[in-house]
Amino acid sequence: MKEYRQKAYAKNKDEILSNWSAWYAENHERELEKKRIRYAENREKNLEYAREYRSSNPEKVRAASDKWKAENPDKVKKAWDDWYSENGKARDAKHRSTPRGKLDDLMSSAIYSAIKKRKAGRSWSDLVGYSVDDLMDHLERQFQPGMTWENHGQYGWHIDHVIPRSAFNYGEPEDIDFKRCWALDNMQPLWWRDNLSKGAKITAPFQPSLAMTVNENQPPLTTRGA
Question: Which InterPro entries match (predicted)?
């Protein structure tokens, strides 16, 4: 029977496809409506099946998702833009409403400002080597009387670099001075007036790293008489 159907299809392929196209054009909306009704009637069952399938086949699901995203970049961008326009601003506002979220957002913006595109989508915490919770604990241990997370801000207390950012010499997050600049032991809380008064002053001995461009065609340096 299967072989017979295959031969019949091969012999009448054009006619079959033409009939199918005509039927599809005539019944497309009705079939979609049937699918919507069936899905609504079995929504919980379908969702449970989908959850179980994703749980049992994570690699297949991930591969299919990655393949679809690679083949449909415009749809991915539109889906993200649509989601963000409806949910993103509220999500960001909720995130910043907590001391932890506010500090996380502040550090992300500060690191991006420092290295721009060289951040390359990487998490600020991965670049500096500590988490937002590590930073919160470090700052809290240095709180002066009256400092709380609620008065962290423009006219409360600021996060200060003990050695000012302007003193360091870096262009990439892999540079030594980037690590030194953003190290935990270079971060402290200061009241806003004290921070403005301190400015870019260096209050301790400090030697920035040297920025050296290596020219592979340049001969090695030699001492006189060598």
Answer: HNH_nuc
Q: Name the residue range of residue 129's domain.
A: 99-198
218 is a domain residue: no
Q: How far apart are CA 139 and CA 147, in angstroms?
A: 10
Give the whole-angstrom CA distance, residue 125 versus residue 128.
Answer: 5
Q: What is the pTM of this model?
A: 0.54
pLDDT digits (tens, 9 = 90+) for 49-85: 888 888 888 888 888 888 888 888 888 788 877 776 7
User: Would residue 48 count as lying in a domain?
Assistant: yes
Do 47 and 109 share a structural domain? no
Residue 151: pLDDT over 90: yes
User: What tokens were used for 194?
Assistant: 């004290």
Name every residue whose Cβ is closer than 8 Å to that of residue 183 and which is 6 or more positions away in sequence.
Answer: 128
Do residues 66 and 108 both lie within one domain?
A: no
